[in-house]
Amino acid sequence: MNKVEEFNAYRSKMNEKILAADNKVIKRIFNLDTNTYAEGALDTKTKELLGLVASMVLRCDDCVKYHLEKCHEIGFDKNQMFEAFAVANLVGGTIVIPHLRRAVEFWEDLEDNKND
């Protein structure tokens, strides 16, 4: 199982467990998260880039992976991702570099899966 499949399997399994607890507040947070990235005054493509950059600056690897996969699905290319990575590193500083490394590795896995 590669990194993308492993991440998605774990995320799905844990989300099912979390939502099965039927906590109203957590369910609302999950729903709010989903609705935030829907088309609106800003298009989904822009919102995913915002989410990716914010996730890198906040140093949340799971969030970075999630937004990378969404960006990949939408059709961003490597050059566009590296421009977003540059913004994240400028805003977040050098502490973001380890997350950049993992983001590049995950992006490569997404690209490899596309070619399979």
Automatic annotation (TrEMBL):
Tell me which Gene3D superfamilies the record gives. AhpD-like (1.20.1290.10)
Q: State the InterPro entries in the record.
A: AhpD-like, AhpD_core, CMD-like
Task: Tell me which residues make up the Carboxymuconolactone decarboxylase-like domain.
Answer: 27-105
Q: Which GO terms describe its molecular function?
A: peroxiredoxin activity
Matches recorded under Pfam families: CMD
Q: Which NCBIfam families match?
A: ahpD_dom (TIGR00778)
Which PANTHER family does the record match to this protein?
Answer: ALKYL HYDROPEROXIDE REDUCTASE AHPD, BLR3452 PROTEIN
What is this protein's name?
Carboxymuconolactone decarboxylase family protein
Protein species of origin: Fulvivirga marina
> Lineage of the source organism?
Bacteria, Pseudomonadati, Bacteroidota, Cytophagia, Cytophagales
